[in-house]
Design a protein that fits this description.
single chain, 239 residues
Length: 239
């Protein structure tokens, strides 16, 4: 019998670290849409070897954050109005379903998770305040955690996975096209009030109220992003 072993399909620890950092930089726009992802550049930027870098790129390609160009390598995935509108449409349906299931199935631990996530979110600076890169990432993380806590009671790992992926892609659009207000648009107090209202309707098991609130909360940002696509196209064309 041969002692040869099949290669381990699990990503290495370094590959996971590079993946996390690269995904963060794509979401934030630090790695710009359409940017060529040269292996040497990435090795220098993330202090990684060739194999972990390629593993991370393959994983990001599977998630559609980067595109493979055959022998030419990889590029950061482009952005477009059509792609944005499709992401919005799909998230609208899946998030509504996840909210409904969470209200139906969520227990006391789920409610406590929402309250804790909201509390942590309120401890960050409100939108519009100037933050350094580390503070900005922390605020984004807490914002994601709050919205994922709302749907975490749905008891469907696939639904949660899809919601997380859609959230990550739409966060990318928001941060690239609306960088001055990284979490949303409008007054910081108004946004905090919306988050508090979302927490309340979920804990009160108000399905219609939750879906109505999340629609209004999301649409505020969606409309701003759509309005800024023309300016973005102009800036890209001028480069």
């Amino acid at each position: 019998m041969s002692n040869d072993r099949l290669p381990d399909p699990r990503p290495t620890t370094q590959a996971v670290a590079v993946y996390d950092l690269m995904r963060r930089d794509i979401r934030s726009g630090a790695l710009e849409p359409g940017m060529a992802l040269r292996t040497e550049l990435l090795k220098t930027r993330y202090g990684s070897g060739v194999s972990p870098t390629r593993e991370a790129l393959a994983r990001l390609a599977a998630e559609h954050f980067v595109t493979a160009e055959g022998k030419k390598g990889f590029r950061v995935a482009p952005i477009s109005i059509e792609d944005f509108e499709e992401l919005v449409s799909i998230r609208r349906e899946l998030e509504a379903r996840a909210l409904q299931l969470s209200i139906a199935n969520g227990n006391d631990d789920w409610e406590a998770q929402i309250v804790a996530a909201f509390h942590r979110l309120t401890k960050t600076s409100p939108p519009g305040h100037i933050l350094n890169a580390i503070e900005e990432e922390e605020r984004e993380r807490r914002h994601r955690d709050f919205h994922m806590a709302l749907v975490s009671g749905c008891r469907s790992r696939w639904l949660l996975r899809f919601c997380e992926q859609l959230t990550a892609h739409l966060e990318r659009y928001r941060r690239i096209l609306n960088p001055q207000s990284a979490i949303s648009t409008g007054d910081g107090k108004e946004i905090e009030d919306e988050h508090r209202a979302l927490m309340t309707v979920m804990i009160n098991r108000d399905v219609d109220g939750a879906i109505d609130l999340i629609e209004r909360h999301r649409n505020r940002t969606y409309n701003v992003i759509l309005g800024r696509f023309e300016a973005y196209r102009g800036s890209v064309a001028a480069e």
